[in-house]
Amino acid sequence: MRTRTDIFLLIILLSVLSAGVHSILPLERGWLDYRKARLLGTEQQRDDLYPVEPGLWYDPAWDWDMETINPDSGKIIIGVIPGLEAGDNQNLDLYSYLNISIRNISLINSMRLNRELRNDPDFVGKRWRDFVGYTEESFIQYVSPESRMGMNLLLAFGRIHDIWGPGRTGQLIMSSMHRPLDQVLLKLKLHRFSIALKTARLDNHVTAIDGHADSTIVDQRWLSASRVGISGSRWRLALNQAVVYGGEGQALEYAYMSPLILLYGEQANGPELKANILGSIDGRYWFDNSSVYFELLFDDFQVENSDQSDLEPPEVGVILGIEWARKSWYAGIEYAALTNRTYKTSDMYNARRSDWYTHRGEMPIGYAEGSDLWRLNGIARFQNDSHLIFDLEMDYCVRGEGEMNRPWDAPWQEPDVTMATGYDEPFPTGVLEKTSTINASVTWQWNHECWAGIFIEQARTENFSHQAGQTKNDTSWGVKCYWALYRVYD
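Request: output the structure for the sequence above.
Response:
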């Protein structure tokens, strides 16, 4: 352990020698603090906001709701964010950051070295000497100046972190939790209207033939998605659609790349446009110092009632939330629910699962918790004048047995089910795993480059792993410390 720690400290020392503490570029604002600023109607001034956990760096060109496009031109920024955590998890974390901006073109790269992820069973990648490392983001972008008509254009290529939807615990169609996608991304804003479209290359799916590891089929997988939004002085509304498709030797389908084509209709007209298509609508309304928001997801639902396959239950999802904020506090309540088999497709339709709505393993591109669940989450944050931040979060999650690691099933196709009897299933399904979690933390923010905090979390799970009567209790605690070291060259 000491050798690995010494290596990590040596990396930090070399980083310190090559970077100086600077106070021009703030870290990315915490999601809660950003939302608080939006509720208060204030600008994103660094003296008013404090980061929660400095994971990514703040880039004004990538606003969550596509409200603004604001290039940072004529600068080179080089930095690192070392982080230490002691407690139940002995974690060492290191982010690196590079931003080269010349006029309206920027080259951005962010990498991560982490020790805690080595024990994550869902992590896909190389584990080296108890560390994992990967490139978080790496892309080149062009941001146009605002035209006389009030139009902005953003064009980017590479591995990009992009979020669609207003949810706090996650988003249903393009979430903040999955690994950033390798993509081509276009965003256009004209007054009250905005359009975003992307095409991304997903991870390959490898299937062994007849169980032989030396004989495999490799499916190439693609994603195309578009978002059209409109906003007023107190409201915002957006329509989204996304498609995942794949197969052995699968080429790019240009028919799926247009934001003005209805993907459901295009697939129905074919021929042979096999894919998993999802649509969603999301919006938000702002009151004075509060707001309400929603997102509705439509994966698959039956409009016919002619044969037994039409008895398939709908695969849909919903997020409903409300937020309040004042100068010294923020509070939010959010409900999320996704029915069984959401993000999946029938094995009869695609037995190799190349069009499941996932990336790098079984992680959904949408809501990270997967399907067949409902969840209620509440959080409160208080910040006093001495830069102390107090957080209290409570979460209750009920999971059915239809998790993402479960194969597709079709009980409505069983012989004892007919059109006369119909088919219905509870929500969520099977033996329900019920988890109650409470988390409390205190954070001290020295300045915009350094903070430390302590947290404690208690979780109780009934029917653990869907085993009736099995109860699991977990208590965890820790102390975290992060600081940013970077230099800006004008």
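The CA atoms of residues 26 and 444 lie 17 Å apart.
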